[in-house]
Amino acid sequence: MSTSARVRADACPGVFATHDAADGPLARVRLPGGAIAADRFRALADAADDLGDGALHLTSRGNVQLRGVTRPGLATRLSAAGLLPSPSHERVRNILASPLSDVAQKLAPALDAALCAVPELAELPGRFLFALDGGQGDVAGEGADVCWRDGAVLLAGGDTGLRVSAEHAVDALISVARAFLRVRGTAWRVSELPDTESLLKGIPGETREPRRFQVNPGLPIGPIGEAIVVAPVFGRLTSAQARAIAKAGDAVVTPWRSILVRGPLEAGTGLVADPAAPSLGISACIGRPGCAKSLADVRADAARAGLAPRVHFAGCERRCGKPAHEHVDVLATGDGYLVDGAFVPVGELTETLATLATLAQKGTQ
């Protein structure tokens, strides 16, 4: 692990401290564990319509962003809906939880409450990430700073060898976060620390030989028992789609820009429910005109590209929203794109990505 000196302040957006994007203020609403009750989903849809651009934008951390929030009152609305239980901690409530794990989903609100109950943890960097993995290996591969994986404690994705029960999982993760604050210096992430052994001191549990765990990122699109997993194109959920989900019941927003809907979803929502849909392989940052740093309207170019392997379109070198899993990197240059480092004119993107998709398919056969 390397030490990285940060020369600028952590500017992760929240509700009280928004980001000034080209299309107006951007507010990020944390959903610890991704779980959201139907009435709170409706409250977000109403806020998007009344105060923002009429859509909810899903993030790679299972959170929701509202863009173009040019009218006042968002914090008041979200507080009334129970979405801001601790104004002082709202930017640090970054918790992933396996969507299909009852254990992880039950631990997430307990971890959130414990986090908000420790005043000094409000000083955590906005990028510090907790994860609770029920053993599926899904969220364990999403780059969390500290993760409890069915008993195993992981730091920056690596197994520490420490084993704690579900009963003590919350205490263990909170202990790591407090220790990180004491030693972080200018670091934002655990991976930036030169030594992480001190983060585990005093945590009761068994010690075993660290092992390499398999990760299985993602959640299959389509029916799962009585529930269904759907995905909005490019993670943009219209307020009408959000209300349709709320009508079906409670839901879980996943870090893969999909939504686990726990009730019957009406037809005709425009949400992707076919696991073979080509759009599922493509993600993209907001691009132009929403971002002033973007060199292209990446979502329009990605939509025209059609069939593709796992690919992420980025408008600039920040590569916002890139997935944690392996993917083809498509970076805008202003007069074309770099596809995994090789220049490709916009007019040749469709052919290039189709070729890569064919090669990827042959490689799995």
Name the CATH superfamily assignment of the largest domain. Sulfite Reductase Hemoprotein,Domain 2
**CA radius of gyration:** 20 Å
Structural class designation: alpha+beta
Amount of helix: 10-25%
Arrangement of strands in the largest sheet: 6-7-8-9-10-11
How far is it from the N-terminal to the C-terminal residue, by CA? 36 Å
Provide a descriptive summary of the structure in words:
Pfam families: NIR_SIR_ferr. This is Precorrin-3B synthase. Residues 27-70 form the Nitrite/Sulfite reductase ferredoxin-like domain. By secondary structure, this protein is of the alpha+beta class. The protein folds into three domains: 1-84 and 220-267, Sulfite Reductase Hemoprotein,Domain 2 (Sulfite Reductase Hemoprotein, domain 2); 86-217, Sulfite Reductase Hemoprotein, domain 1, CATH 3.30.413; 281-363, Sulfite Reductase Hemoprotein, domain 1 (2-Layer Sandwich), CATH 3.30.413.10. 23% of the residues lie in helices and 21% in strands. It contains seven helices and 21 strands. The strands form four sheets. A six-stranded mixed sheet has the order 6-7-8-9-10-11, with helices on one face. A five-stranded antiparallel sheet has the order 1-2-5-4-14. Strands 3-15-16-13-12 form a five-stranded antiparallel sheet. Strand 12 and strand 13 form a beta hairpin. The protein is globular, with a radius of gyration of 20 Å.
